Amino acid sequence: MRNVRQGPNPPVVLVLAGHDPTGGAGLVADSEAIAACGGWAVTIPTALTVQDCRDVHRVVPVDAGLIRGMAGGLSSLPIAAIKVGLVASSDTLDAVVAIVRDRPGIPVVVDPVLKAGGGAELSTTELIEAFRERLLPLVDVLTPNRLELERLTKGAGQDDTTRAKRLLTSGCGAVLVTGSDDPEVEVPTGEVQQVLYCADGRFAWRWPRLTGRYHGSGCTLAAALSARLAVGESLHEACEQAQAFTWRALTRAWQPPVGQALPRRL
Ligand code: PLP
């Protein structure tokens, strides 16, 4: 007798992201978030990192040929969405762009990981420029925090709305800015605001601000969002559900002896 569970197959989400050995961010975080949201993560490491719970100490991009080879090995799987995280070299960017281009018509969620929460730089000006030119036009939802938004739109203006609109003009489908202080709505102290900019307009959500510092909150949000889109939710619903999921994971985070708290997604 075959021991294969019958029933609908889970939607497969292809994750291209760095490996963080702490499990706070990167591939492990993404896989957990995707599984918890009903998806099946297939994972391709774009970089290996040396880090502790305080900061990233070393990033080694994975060979671009290996990345392409791993993607080829997954070609028989029905991929329903793609999530991209850390892209730490120009060759990696080329491979990621090729892999995304090879799979048109599915949602692509990109978390532009430019700097670690601990402070380490994870990108360069040239790489950000290449990211804007080559990957951004293929993105359905970009999930920058305010700092990433600023760095991706240097010279575009002062406020989040102008900056986000610049990204939309560059070909990105929607931008979900986390920790936004968009002045259109005053955010009460003790709350944090996330704002979605898309073709239908601007939508804001506010969540009680959590104290403490968390590692991998951006990964959790983007991965949950990719899984939600893969199961067929609308952009608005998926953004809302992914935020709720992330907020819950942060409220359940555990505190290692040193460094940032690690979200519990499962
Ligand atoms: N992805 C990987 C592989 C990382 O190493 C990091 C940063 O350490 C991140 C994503 C971003 O995580 P965070 O925003 O918590 O620094």
From TrEMBL:
Gene for this chain: hemL
Domain Pyridoxamine kinase/Phosphomethylpyrimidine kinase: 20-256
Native source species: Billgrantia pellis
Name by which UniProt lists this protein: Glutamate-1-semialdehyde 2,1-aminomutase
Compartments, as annotated in UniProt: Cytoplasm
Taxonomic placement: Bacteria, Pseudomonadati, Pseudomonadota, Gammaproteobacteria, Oceanospirillales
Family assignment from sequence similarity: Belongs to the class-III pyridoxal-phosphate-dependent aminotransferase family. HemL subfamily.
Bilayer-spanning residue ranges: none
Subunit-level organization: Homodimer.
